[in-house]
Amino acid sequence: MYKRIYYQALIERLKEPRKFIQVVYGPRQVGKTTLIQQIIHDIEIPYHYISADTAGESNIGWIEQQWNVARMRKKSINAGDFLLIFDEVQKIREWSEMVKCQWDKDTIQGNSIKLIISGSSKLLLQIGLGDSMAGRFETINMQHWTYKEIKEAFGLTGDQYVWFGGYPGAMSLIHDEIRWKDYIKSSLIDTTIHKDVLMLTRIDKPALLKRVMELSCYYSGQILAFNKMLGQLLDAGNTTTLSHYLDLLNEAGLVTGIQKYSREKVSEKKSSPKLMVQNTALMSGIKHELFKTIIEKPEVWGRHVESAVGAHLLNHSKAGNYDVYYWRERNDEIDFVLEKQEKVIGLEVKTGAIRKYSGISSFQEIFKNAKTFIVGSGGIPWEEFLLIKPNELFI
Predict the structure, then answer these.
(1) Fewer CB in a 10 Å sphere around the end CB: N or C, the chain?
(2) What pLDDT is recorded for position 355?
(3) What are the Cα distances from residue 120, in Å, to 20, 115, 130, 323, 389?
């Protein structure tokens, strides 16, 4: 079974003396449960695994009950270390206070029960990991699968990865594309919205939230002002509502709105967003057209390639400690701008015939110390670019 880079980081932490709670989070179906299964199979520490799906959301006592099971089992087998795993613990209200209480109890008693918490809802986990849990945990933020990982694990070509994206659970369905699309829409998009996003905060218009999601997928790789989005939506409310919904979808690992790059941070916040999927399967899954049809349409296929590059940049941005923007002035545009501390990189994605690079020239005139790269025709082949870590561009 394929092991992602997070495997080594987590297993090394668990081999250390008990010190921190390990929090594993990320979008749905990126392999969190598989990672934990690999860990408990290899680490040779007795364990107790339980999912919060088996408990009511208000049953905070369930956490203590499971913890007592772990303590009893540890004592009965006279184990030195014991591993307790709570999956989707954020589904239980006020879970963090009970986790803190039980963790501190073991700490005081010198009871070496190591703890893993995993979950799909980033914000709900973060709410629980507030001030009361400070100093007690460290995180592993799992991102969507990269082209390198999908290629090694499933043998997909670059074109296939651009279209089918990086959900490993859907790979067995790609030869039946209608079935694959149904899976993406029902098991990923709908499930994430209903079980993750709608749990984050009160949503007055859940149907609108779903429409914002669909619109963001359809227009991925394109700059779309909120006012124009309002024109595409019925009963849309206002731009503040749309911006808020887009933020929630971003936190769920679905889509985001990249802001315009500017020296003035206020201008960035006021700019029209460039919509971008975080996994290109979301973009392809909502469309009626099939892979063989879209790949024969250069302009449309180019937006899919650009979205794959954008998703690649976004999914590496946290680990690489850089921010992702776009840039546009009048008719000049740069597809992506990366900023890390005072270093700036401009990226232009080209999949068709090369004509001119007015965007790059204008960008270099304004930002004289910036590096620029062409990804695709006339530059770094986009398949090759998807295999590198973008942070290496800053070297």
Answers:
(1) C
(2) 54
(3) 20, 17, 17, 23, 24
Q: Are 209 and 241 in contact (CB under 8 A)?
A: no
Query: Do 38 and 165 share a domain, yes or no?
Result: no
Burial of 209 (0-12, 13-18, 19+ CB in 10 A): buried
Determine the Cα–Cα distance for residues 221 and 300; give it in Å rounded to an integer.
Answer: 10
Instruction: Kindly state whether residues 160 and 285 are assigned to the same domain.
Output: yes
**C-alpha to C-alpha distance for 21 and 345, rounded to whole angstroms:** 37
Residues 268 and 326 in one domain: yes
Percentages helix, strand, coil for the chain (3-state, rounded to 5) are 50, 15, 30
Return all residues near 38 (Cβ < 8 A) that are at least 6 apart: 1, 3, 7
| Separation CA 337–CA 328 (nearest Å) | 10
pLDDT at 108: 96
**266, 246 Cβ separation under 8 angstroms:** no
**Residue bearing tokens 């007055």:** 204
User: Which domain range does residue 25 map to?
Assistant: 5-141
Strand-strand pairing, 21-25 and 137-141: parallel
Q: What is the pTM of this model?
A: 0.91
DSSP state of 237: -
Same domain, 125 and 162: no
| Domain edge (last residue) among 141, 167, 188 | 141
